[in-house]
Inverse folding.
């Protein structure tokens, strides 16, 4: 079981730099370095304009990661220059209307913390260059020039410019405000102030406590605590609106008894440094009524005063239902809003707002919002016309200039877009010439291979849509490909792909006709016409105008190109097959199957040598060491890292381990079984020096039959005693596979440990808690007695007559070389000073357990307990070894039933 090689890394690179995004943005949702993972901006934890990054191992152990602060500038009209930027260039601009990021370090970072990696600048990793970044920004509620969004909210409260956002339907019956409930405001542990009217509280304090000291440091805090009962049945969801004002250096606002579903937060700071915060949160109650905890601490900002103001105004509204999507899952912009922006923005087509038919665009925006067809994009370079056409392609729509009004209009290709009185009629005698052809007649397309962008996987994904009826009729599939690069989820791509497949798979008329009818000159592109032509069909068919030619001035004949309308609302016999994703990128580090335990004496000797181990134990006999083993969770992982908290809740890396093999036991085995069937296989050569850990029992490896999957072992090696097992993982390991924490821990100390997978792309994230290991001074304890028999049998169920116990000795100090002894092997010379303790407990059904024997019997290897005069149903036998005040870690503990025996001293009495 060989060791992996390691690479020596020379330098860690830090830098301060700016990265420009473009025009106005609303927020930075997240950032992804080197396509490894999203670092998400959490509005509950981070200020709106700051994203802390703590990913020091993101690129792997050798390549490091990224750490530091990122200042977010949103492209406001009159922004202040960045303070960090200004230190290096005093005349730097604030860059109005330009969104950008400033990457910098953590000021005053303490040593040995993730922040310390970026103390002097943003930590870039160990390779000397900045890896590629993917930014996830949001701009849906403001326009490119910073103005508020057009048609942001409609009459029913829906935020039409966003699709996938949090949507709420408020109850018209249930209402609840903070004044209806009694809240208690705590000012430090000793002063409580009850408040139960109005919608907020203003509390000013400090004058008597701080004695007029200028700019004192505040350590007190104010928090709200609800008191009294509240009928939670009144609420399904609730909305909490908070307005808070702090004149303190630091502030913290958190929610209690609330599952936050959506939150919006804004913050402003006045010239004195006081903070005004507005929060709107949608939450679900649990474990009580939701409430707000707000605290202000630190130095008072205002000069010449030793008081500070803390104000909270909070209103709670009941919500009886809600449909929502968290922004971390993705919010898209309404494509109608994007099309309108391209038309009117001065960096695009620059059309006046008066050139837009607002009522028509609002109708289209509302319809697209109802259909949920949002888009997201980031454009490097594209013509405006091309961009508009691509957006229209995504939503099955067209844009036109109305020839009567001169205004831009949207037409959605839906069955009910035009009212019946808006559809044109023409008589057959007004049609001069008509040419016809059948679309899709030669080789009907009955399969669409669809490509869209999967936001969650950060890559293109594909699926196919089939028109089953057409495939059965034709006997084969005829496929075309379509791309929806602006759809971020399969749901949107699936809806539009079904619409397009219906068009491709349905034979329909197309053609052109001419007419001299003057009313036809008033028609517009994409209008609908009832078209008669008795030689081809009865009555009329519904066609859509695709192009109009008005003639050349001398000939006023109107030429109209058309296509027959295919209904969108009809049902088709379609099926969808999602292509299995091809994961070209390496998998992130996956959790491993691992075991963490206190190292026994034998492994400690193999690690440090017997002389050093004995010296350490003679000086500190109560110490213990934490060790770990793990099985490989994925092919691209070479090794794992052992982290421990040192008993002080601060995890740090203490060792590295090579992976061991793992097998699975899925059947029950008893204490005697030494050969059993397992699942899995061995990838490394194993021999008699290997150990096996099954649950808490250490075993010795004897052999493994790869054909029959039979594993043969020695049971109960070292300080272990055989146990019953129903199932479990069998770790097959040798010394190189074991990670040791070299810290000496004291007896009864509880250490938490974690085994983290490493890959070339990163290290598994630390959890808040690990696996607890209680130190029991395992290395100094004597081995328990072995090969123990009761009346000549191993683990008997019953016995008769007396209890006759026999066993053999084990020697912790001697058993460090040669073959590993199993529990059933012959004895060796006992460890000097070792004695044995026996406890026997009598148990009777319906009676009280009685301790019959509790005695240190010395260093003998047998003991007999007469049960002739005892009347118990069962006897529990416990045997363990002891030396220098230390008892063996494991004890022999077995219960046997007493057999009923015929009496031998009866006297017969005969009745006369």
């Amino acid at each position: 079981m060989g060791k992996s090689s390691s690479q020596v890394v020379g330098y860690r690179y830090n830098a301060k730099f700016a990265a420009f995004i473009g025009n106005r943005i609303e927020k930075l949702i997240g950032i992804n370095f080197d396509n490894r993972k999203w670092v998400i901006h959490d509005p509950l934890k981070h200020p709106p304009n700051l994203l802390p990054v703590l990913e020091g191992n993101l690129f792997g152990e050798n390549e490091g990661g990224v750490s530091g602060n990122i200042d977010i500038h949103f492209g406001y009209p009159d922004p202040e220059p960045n303070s960090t930027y200004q230190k290096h260039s005093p005349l730097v601009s604030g860059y109005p209307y330009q969104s950008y990021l400033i990457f910098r370090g953590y000021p005053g970072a303490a040593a040995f913390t993730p922040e310390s990696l970026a103390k002097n600048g943003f930590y870039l990793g160990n390779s000397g260059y900045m890896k590629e970044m993917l930014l996830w920004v949001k701009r849906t509620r403001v326009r490119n020039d910073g103005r508020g969004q057009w048609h942001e909210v409609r009459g029913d409260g829906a935020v039409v410019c966003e699709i996938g956002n949090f949507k709420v339907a408020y109850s018209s019956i249930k209402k609840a405000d903070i004044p209806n409930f009694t809240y208690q405001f705590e000012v430090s542990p000793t002063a409580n102030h009850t408040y139960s009217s109005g919608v907020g509280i203003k509390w000013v304090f400090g004058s008597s406590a701080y004695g007029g000291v200028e700019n004192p440091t505040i350590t007190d805090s104010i928090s709200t605590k609800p008191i009294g009962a509240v009928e939670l049945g009144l609420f399904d969801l609730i909305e909490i609106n908070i307005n808070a004002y702090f004149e303190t250096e630091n502030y913290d606002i958190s929610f209690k008894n609330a599952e936050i579903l959506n939150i919006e937060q804004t913050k402003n700071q006045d010239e004195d440094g006081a903070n005004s915060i507005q929060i709107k949160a949608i939450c679900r109650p649990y474990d009580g009524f939701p409430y707000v905890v707000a605290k202000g601490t630190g130095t008072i900002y205002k000069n010449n005063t030793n008081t500070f103001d803390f104000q909270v105004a909070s209103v709670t509204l009941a919500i009886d239902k809600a449909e929502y999507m968290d922004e971390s899952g993705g919010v898209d912009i309404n494509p109608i809003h994007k099309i309108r922006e391209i038309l009117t923005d001065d960096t695009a087509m620059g059309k006046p707002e008066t050139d837009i038919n607002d009522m028509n665009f609002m109708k289209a925006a509302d319809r697209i919002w109802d259909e949920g067809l949002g888009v997201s994009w980031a454009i490097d370079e594209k013509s405006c016309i091309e961009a508009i056409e691509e957006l229209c392609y995504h939503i099955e729509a067209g844009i036109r200039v109305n020839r009567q009004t001169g205004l831009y209009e949207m037409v959605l290709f839906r069955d009910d877009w035009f009212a019946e009185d808006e559809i044109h009629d023409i008589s057959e005698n007004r049609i001069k010439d008509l040419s016809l052809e059948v679309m899709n007649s030669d080789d009907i397309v009955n399969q669409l291979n669809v490509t869209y962008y999967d936001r969650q996987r950060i890559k293109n994904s594909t699926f196919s849509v089939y028109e089953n009826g057409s495939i059965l009729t034709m006997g084969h599939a005829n496929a075309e490909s379509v791309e929806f690069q602006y759809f971020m989820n399969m749901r949107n791509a699936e809806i539009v792909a079904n619409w397009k497949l219906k068009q491709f798979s349905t034979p329909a008329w197309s053609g052109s006709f001419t007419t001299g009818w003057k009313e036809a000159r008033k028609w517009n592109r994409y209008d609908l016409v009832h078209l008669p032509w008795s030689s081809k069909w009865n009555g009329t068919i519904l066609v859509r105008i695709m192009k109009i030619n008005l003639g050349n001035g001398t000939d006023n004949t109107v030429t109209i190109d058309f296509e027959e309308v295919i209904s969108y609302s009809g049902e088709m016999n379609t099926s969808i097959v999602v292509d299995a994703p091809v994961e070209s990128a390496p998998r992130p580090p996956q959790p491993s199957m691992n075991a963490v335990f206190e190292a026994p004496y034998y492994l400690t000797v193999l690690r440090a040598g017997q002389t050093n181990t004995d010296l350490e134990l003679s000086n500190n006999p109560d110490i213990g060491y934490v060790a770990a083993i793990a099985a490989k969770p994925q092919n691209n992982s070479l090794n794992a890292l052992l982290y421990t908290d040192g008993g002080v809740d601060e995890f740090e890396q203490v060792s590295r381990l090579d992976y061991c093999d793992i097998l699975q036991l899925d059947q029950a085995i008893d204490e005697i079984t030494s050969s059993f069937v397992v699942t899995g296989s061995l990838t490394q050569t194993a021999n008699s020096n290997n150990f096996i850990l099954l649950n808490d029992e250490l075993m010795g490896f004897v052999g493994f039959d790869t054909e029959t999957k039979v594993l043969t072992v020695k049971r109960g090696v070292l300080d272990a005693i055989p146990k019953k097992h129903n199932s479990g993982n069998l770790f097959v390991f040798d010394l190189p596979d074991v990670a040791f924490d070299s810290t000496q821990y004291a007896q009864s100390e509880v250490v938490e440990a974690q085994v983290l997978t490493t890959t070339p792309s990163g290290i598994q994230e630390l959890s808040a808690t690990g696996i607890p290991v209680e130190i029991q001074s395992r290395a100094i304890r004597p081995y328990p007695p072995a090969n123990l028999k009761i009346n000549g049998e191993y683990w008997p169920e019953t016995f008769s007559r007396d209890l006759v116990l026999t066993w053999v000795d084990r020697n912790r100090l001697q058993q460090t070389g040669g073959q590993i002894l199993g529990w059933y092997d012959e004895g060796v010379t006992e460890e000097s000073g070792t004695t044995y303790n026996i406890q026997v407990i009598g148990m009777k059904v319906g009676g009280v357990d009685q301790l019959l024997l509790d005695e240190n019997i010395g260093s003998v290897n047998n003991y007999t307990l007469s049960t002739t005069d005892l009347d118990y149903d069962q006897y529990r036998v416990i045997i363990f070894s002891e030396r220098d005040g230390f008892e063996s870690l494991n004890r022999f503990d077995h219960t046997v039933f007493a057999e009923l025996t015929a009496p031998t001293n009866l006297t017969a009495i005969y009745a006369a």
User: Anything to note?
Assistant: Residues 490-505 form the longest helix (16 residues). The CA atoms of residues 1 and 685 lie 7 Å apart. The chain has a mean pLDDT of 81. The radius of gyration is 39 Å.
